[in-house]
Design goal:
Number of helices: 8
Largest sheet: 3 strands, parallel
Structural class: alpha/beta
Radius of gyration: 19 Å
Helix content: 55-70%
Strand content: 5-15%
Distance between the termini: 59 Å
Strand order of the largest sheet: 1-3-2
Length: 153
């Protein structure tokens, strides 16, 4: 078990804790799995960042898309900036979300959702966030390549 745990309320609090060596966590699932499987010991100090509002949100800054560390799949998918200016990302998120919905529907059909509960299923959906971003990144490159090829046959 970690020796110290701080629940940061502001970005300054989180940065202060991290300056002393605390590892930031939003949920900590990867830490628990790593510790249980013996892959990695829990860090000596943790700082929970799930209450840090400065780390939420999706915005555009100077033509670049800025995703807060706590931005969820739903936040990104629902962002007007993403839908209007970063269409390849919006398309990829839609594809990923459809795949997640398909898997959840299969789990519902098999009665798994009833066993674990819909709240847990929603948590699982949010965990797909990082995978969606990776897919979006690769789809953006592929989309850019297709656009370039069709513009310059």
């Amino acid at each position: 078990m970690s020796a110290t745990y701080v629940a940061a309320g502001t970005l300054a609090d989180a940065l202060e804790a991290m300056s002393t060596g605390a590892r930031p966590v939003a949920g900590g699932t990867d830490l628990v799995v790593g510790a249980r499987t013996g892959k990695a010991a829990l860090p000596e100090a943790l700082v929970a960042i799930h209450r840090v509002d400065e780390l939420r949100g999706v915005r555009e800054d100077g033509g670049r898309l800025v995703l807060g560390a706590l931005a969820t799949h739903a936040d990104i998918e629902g962002s007007a900036v993403v839908r209007e200016r970063f269409t390849a990302l919006a398309d990829a998120l839609g594809l990923t979300d459809n795949a997640v919905r398909t898997h959840i529907a299969a789990l519902e059909r098999d009665g798994i959702v009833e066993q674990v509960g819909m709240q847990e299923m929603n948590r699982l959906r949010e965990r797909c966030h990082a995978r969606a971003l990776a897919l979006a990144s690769s789809n953006t490159c592929a989309a850019r390549q297709r656009c370039t090829q069709s513009a310059h046959p």
